[in-house]
TrEMBL record:
The keyword Cell membrane applies. GO terms for biological process: adenine transport; adenosine transport; guanine transport; hypoxanthine transport; thymine transport. It is found in: Apical cell membrane; Basolateral cell membrane. Its main location: membrane. Bidirectional uniporter involved in the facilitative transport of nucleosides and nucleobases, and contributes to maintaining their cellular homeostasis. Functions as a Na(+)-independent, passive transporter. Involved in the transport of nucleosides such as inosine, adenosine, uridine, thymidine, cytidine and guanosine. Also able to transport purine nucleobases (hypoxanthine, adenine, guanine) and pyrimidine nucleobases (thymine, uracil). Involved in nucleoside transport at basolateral membrane of kidney cells, allowing liver absorption of nucleoside metabolites. The chain crosses the membrane at residues 12-39, 70-90, 97-117, 171-195, 201-222, 298-323, 335-356, 368-390, 402-425, 437-460. It comes from Carlito syrichta. Belongs to the SLC29A/ENT transporter (TC 2.A.57) family. This is Equilibrative nucleoside transporter 2. Keywords: Cell membrane, Glycoprotein, Membrane, Phosphoprotein, Transmembrane, Transmembrane helix, Transport. GO terms for molecular function: uridine transmembrane transporter activity. One of its GO terms (cellular component) is apical plasma membrane.
Length: 464
């Protein structure tokens, strides 16, 4: 394709599609974890007419099932295993089968969660079924329903994004961040609606099903859009040249693909320079990219991603959901955790992810990135020393609500920014024909970080 014939993202349709795909892939997980009062009510053996409440107006006994910890851990281990398999076997199964099959499986399993709202069941069997659903359907990247299917879905989508300009990775991650805000607002509306418990819970769990259907439609629409076909073409002999031509064309315009200038033109210039001069050891006619060669190029960025999610999942939501207001009983106490834990986290996480649309700092060659990532480990003791009444070992050093809110602001925005930054930097560290493999590998390390954090949450909770 000639440089002058490079397609444009007409009406931002490809960008909007990836944004909605990000929103749809994370809606189920966010609706799952923000419904903690509903699950704890059911597991406490409360009357079924009140156990479905999301408001937690009734008193819930101590969490003998450790629901927060188990649902986080069991939703991450299958995610880790299937993401690893997807990294190596992604070329064996057609991409359309992987993505559409995963979306359909997630939809069916989340419908089961909604149906269980109407089914009377003792706490033991309900816990078992819920954990199986978590294993099969939960997916995260930030702290995604179905871990097994979610891993395949996310690995495939990040693989596609690896072949696209970095702006589209940012849009996808911003959509995922918005999913958390949407779920938290839905929870607050459910608490304030005053409708009966079962109707509230049923409507709450049906909502993400609509998001999955919208994601399916968006994915199907990509094959009809010239801009998407241009970048997602599997002809490796033409794709790098086409991408280089498109980026050069974009540098000459004030608007890129119909999207305002972001990231900066300097980043695009750097991409072009890297693609013009291949590494000395790179083959002139690259064949099938090697997973191990790609890993050697991105290992430090991948390690940073692991550490970011290890910190985040070790305390969110296992520890942060236990923090209560120090102001005493009242409306604020009832809404404190939904607003200051879930809603605030998701708003600031989304803001952090969106910041990479305007700048990417530090860059992939800077040693400052690992330092910033390691500093986030300070959030673990800070949250553990906040106002958590259910403790027997550690003291409460930060009882006021303002401490928790401040910690959560910094915790969430740093999570969103560093996740988006590492996911955008990784494809820039490899050759164009290796970017799909880099995207799949980063998804595996994302899952590894989530699993490590979920495992550590048991230890940190025991230390309280």
């Amino acid at each position: 394709m000639a440089r002058g014939d490079a397609p444009q993202d007409s009406y931002h349709l490809v960008g909007i599609s990836f944004f909605i795909l990000g929103l749809g892939t994370l809606l189920p997980w966010n609706f799952f974890i923000t419904a903690i009062p509903y699950f704890q009510g059911r597991l406490a053996g409360a009357n079924h007419s009140t156990a479905g409440s999301l408001s937690a107006n009734h008193t819930v006994p101590e969490d003998t099932f450790n629901f927060n910890n188990w649902v986080t851990l069991l939703s991450q281990l299958p995610l880790l295993v299937f993401t690893l398999l997807n990294s190596f076997l992604y070329q064996c199964i057609p991409e359309t089968v992987r993505i559409l099959g995963s979306l359909l499986a997630i939809l069916l399993l989340f419908v089961l969660t909604a149906v269980l709202v109407k089914v009377d069941m003792s706490p033991g069997p309900f816990f078992s079924i819920t954990m199986v659903s978590a294993c099969l359907v939960e997916q995260q990247p930030h702290p995604c329903p179905s871990a097994a299917f979610g891993a395949i879905l996310q690995g495939s989508l990040f693989g596609q994004l690896g072949t696209m300009p970095s702006t589209y990775s940012t849009l996808f991650l911003s959509g995922q961040g918005l999913a958390g805000i949407f779920a938290a607002l839905a929870m607050l509306l459910s608490m304030a609606s005053g409708v009966d418990a079962q109707t509230s819970a049923l409507g709450y769990f049906i909502t993400p099903c609509v998001g999955i259907l919208m994601s399916t439609v968006c994915h199907l629409s990509l094959s009809r859009l010239k801009f998407a076909r241009y970048y997602l073409a599997k002809d490796s002999s033409q794709a790098p040249t086409q991408e280089l031509e498109t980026k050069a064309e974009l540098l000459q315009s004030d608007v890129k693909n119909g999207i305002p200038n972001s990231p900066q033109k300097v980043a695009l210039t750097l991409d072009i320079d890297l693609e013009k001069e291949p590494e000395p050891n790179e083959p002139q006619n690259p064949g099938k990219p090697s997973v191990f060669v790609v890993f050697r190029k991105i290992w430090l960025t991948a390690l940073c991603l692991v550490l970011v999610f290890t910190v985040t999942l070790s305390v969110f939501p296992a520890i942060t959901a236990m923090v209560t207001s120090s102001t005493g009983p009242g409306k604020w106490s009832q809404f404190f955790n939904p607003i200051c834990c879930f809603l605030l986290f998701n708003i600031m996480d989304w803001l952090g992810r969106s910041l990479t649309s305007y700048f990417l700092w530090p860059d992939e060659d800077s040693r400052l990135l690992p330092l910033l990532v390691c500093l986030r480990f300070l959030f673990v003791p800070l949250f553990m020393l906040c106002h958590v009444p259910q403790r027997s070992r550690l003291p409460i050093l930060f009882p006021q609500d303002a401490y928790f809110i401040t910690f959560m602001l910094l915790f969430a925005i740093s999570n969103g920014y560093l996740v988006s930054l590492t996911m955008c930097l990784a494809p820039r560290q490899v050759q164009p024909h290796e970017r799909e493999v880099a995207g799949a590998l980063m998804t595996f390390f994302l899952a590894l970080g989530l699993s490590c954090g979920a495992s550590l949450s048991f230890l940190f909770k025991a230390l309280l």
